[in-house]
Amino acid sequence: MRWKAGTTGRRRGLLAAATAAVGAAALALGTASAVSGATAASASEQAAPAALGGNWYGAAPYVMPFDNSPPDLGPVMSATGQKSFQLAFILAPNGGGCSPTWDGTHPVSSDTQAKSVIDGIRAAGGDVTVSAGGYGGTKLGQTCGDPSSTAAAYQQVISKYALKAIDFDLEEPEYENATAIHNEIGAAKILQQNNPGLYVSVTTAGTTGGEGTGWFGKQMLAEAKSQGFTPANYAIMPFDGGFNGSAAQISALEGFHSTLMSTFGWSSATAYAHEGVSLMNGRSDTGEYFRQADFQAVLDYATSHGLSRFTFWSVNRDRQCSPPDNNGQTSGTCSSVTQGAWDFTKFTAAFGGAPASPPPTDPAPGACTAPAWNATSVYTGGMEVTYSKHTYKAKWWTQGETPGTADVWSDEGPCT
After folding, report:
1. What is the rounded distance in angstroms from the CA atom of residue 71 to the CA atom of residue 143?
2. Calpha distance 77→224 (Å, rounded)
3. Contact 132, 150 (CB under 8 A)
4. 309: which DSSP letter?
5. What value does the CA radius of gyration of the chain take, rounded to a whole number of Å?
6. DSSP 199-263
7. Disulfide check for 91: which of 10, 104, 142, 339 has CB 3.0–4.6 Å away?
């Protein structure tokens, strides 16, 4: 789930109605363009820097540059060592159409405000990734007619800001729309092909169940598999769903790890290398609490298991409220827990600065020894079959359910 300004701050992707928030945004944008003393004019003349190394694109925390009192990111970078930020969100226009906007209201084609923020970050030695989607609002995958036109709209964003990374935040209500998800995944694949070296991440909802994400999340993964699309990583958001601290979050990540293996036929190491987590700092909008110790525990898990993404929602919230607990309320501009300024951004900085693990090399697949799957045969739990050069194991009784398309089958990996 993500944040929508105008209420408690939840549901990322829509603008706040409050005039005060707009005024604060304008002030922050004005100062952000002067990060490290660079003026907007001089920064805009600079060419995009070389891509960041290490895990930095996977460590980019979310920032709303137009809403929720966006902070001046220069001091954040100086205080934490953070080099990357993820600006949110790119949506279709509120009135409809297949052209990219910020939050449905600011056309990318005429934007100068977000660009000044990006220029300021780059002038200070950092870089950005831009996130498309979020919770609420109208997504380009819903309004563009097909993957090609959806990709063309996103390409405008990549070209406008010379992006080296982009995130697809696929969640409610968009991921309940099979056509929209087909368009978004197809667009991501096209962008990946047309922009060599582009870092593409996918973010989706997390659940406390044993599979790490729900039915729609698994359908999204199945769509990616059917299109032959593999991003840098898939990240789940283990909050707003009955989570209680880091133990529940790590349990969800382990379940999602198993889901990635069974969906794509990946080894354990490959699944971890394509897995990520998107946290929420402080009090969630359902009353869960994720404090600094929880972030540390999940960071330790992410680094020890070789995950390639560790991010959170949001830098706008990474400051202490007044009073610190915000009277038990969730805010879009502060965390509702006791903290120092930018405490949570220091965790993404630690992840980003860690050496990136080399991609794992899977062992060569073994011979296909199980009998070929037969649509008329009855299979019970534990029985194995070969289908489409993969070995599948039945979880329970089944007949006529094709391996790779039904939950009854566990993908044991490729074979020859």
Report:
1. 32
2. 35
3. no
4. E
5. 21
6. EEEEEEE--SSTTSS-HHHHHHHHHHHHHT---SEEEEE--SSS--SHHHHHHHHHHHHHHHHHH
7. 104
- Scanning 110-177, the segments in alpha helix (DSSP H) are 113-123, 140-143, 147-161
Q: How far is CA 342 from CA 87, 247, 302, 333, 365, in A?
A: 17, 23, 20, 12, 46
Q: Which tokens hold the place of 204?
A: 């989706």
- Are 129 and 200 spatial neighbours (Cβ–Cβ below 8 Å)? no
Q: What is the pTM of this model?
A: 0.80
CA 150 to chain centre: 18
Burial of 117 (0-12, 13-18, 19+ CB in 10 A): buried
Residue 292 and residue 306 in contact, taking contact as beta carbons nearer than 8 Å: no
pLDDT tens by residue, 159-171:
999 999 999 999 9
Pairing status of strand 62-63 against strand 84-91: parallel
322's tokens? 């007044």
Angle at which helix 73-80 crosses helix 113-123, to 10 degrees, equals: 30
Q: Is 384 in the active site? A: no
Measured CA to CA, the distance from residue 30 to residue 279 in angstroms comes to 28
* Phi, then psi, of 164 in degrees rounded to 5: -110, 0
Classify the C-alpha dihedral 16-21-26-29 as positive or negative.
negative
Q: What's the token pair of residue 81? A: 């060592």
Bridge partner residues of 199 (DSSP) = 165
What are the tens digits of pLDDT across the range 14-67? 333 333 333 333 334 333 433 433 333 333 344 556 789 889 999 999 999 999
User: Comparing C-alpha atoms, which of 263, 267, 214 is closest to residue 241?
Assistant: 214
Token pair of 123, please? 């002038």
Given a cut of 60, is residue 217 above it in pLDDT? yes
Can you tell me which residue has the tokens 């794992």? 360
Q: What pLDDT, on the 0 to 100 scale, is given for residue 414? A: 83
| Residue in 171, 174, 211, 223 annotated catalytic | 171
